[in-house]
Specification:
The chain is of the alpha/beta class. It contains 11 helices and 8 strands. Helix 3 runs antiparallel to helix 4 and helix 5 packs across helix 7. The radius of gyration is 18 Å and the shape is globular.
């Protein structure tokens, strides 16, 4: 059994939605129609992101987009302290994001977090920009990317604490034993999940973990051992 701290990226690890910012900066204006289709429920977030990235001109290079991410992204306060706490207490930290490697990787690498597992949209530039989402089983998916990882962790018998903020986090967070939530995720789960905690900085998350994590794991091990 592993204890996993699963972090969303946009609006969670960083204060900004870097995926949207990237599209605003580089994509042709038609991407907004895909965003509206997502908001209306006619596209999944994965389908929206794939279609929108296709509207980034091919002459925009990955270095330019990585530089944008580095200049624009601001880590949420307490991120490094949270990662340190996880390291010293035997937790695994993983980032699961519908964002792109173009923004996720430069920010994490520049923070010295290059050893943190990250699962995000994989991009490639051939004759046009493409993105794809691959599940833990190696299957390309067009919806439920975050949920596929939450389900895999649960299937492995892991204890998962999930940190997120948006509607795309809800299905995955419902599968976690503990949820740290902001904004839409908080509104959706605060009355439905038995262990749902609000947070503004990762210092808030560390405070709860220091107080309660040992008890959660002891209870979880006892329950799983009795089955």
């Amino acid at each position: 059994m592993a204890a996993i701290l699963c972090l969303d990226f946009d609006d969670t690890v960083v204060l900004e939605n870097l995926t949207r910012g990237l599209l605003e900066r580089f994509a042709d204006p038609g991407w907004r129609a895909f965003e509206q289709a997502y908001k209306d429920g006619r596209m999944s977030v994965e389908e929206y992101n794939i279609a929108a990235l296709d509207l980034v001109p091919i002459d925009v290079g990955p270095e330019e987009m990585a530089a944008f991410a580095r200049e624009t992204g601001h880590p949420r306060a307490g991120l490094l302290e949270l990662v340190d706490w996880a390291h010293w207490n035997g937790w695994l930290v993983t980032v699961v994001s519908n964002g792109f490697d173009l923004t996720v990787d430069p920010v994490l690498d520049d923070l010295g977090l290059d050893r943190i597992a990250r699962h995000r949209g994989r991009t490639a530039r051939t004759y046009r920009w493409r993105a794809r989402y691959v599940s833990p089983r190696g299957i390309e998916v067009h919806e439920g990317f975050k949920l596929s990882y939450a389900a895999a962790f649960r299937s492995n018998g892991d204890f998962v604490a999930y940190c997120g903020d948006g509607a795309s986090d809800v299905p995955a967070a419902r599968m976690a034993k503990v949820v740290f939530a902001r904004d839409t995720l908080w509104e959706r789960l605060r009355d439905d999940h038995p262990r749902c905690y609000p947070f503004e900085t990762f210092h808030d998350v560390v405070t709860v973990l220091q107080r309660d994590a040992a008890g959660w794991l002891a209870e979880f091990e006892q329950q799983t051992g009795e089955r």
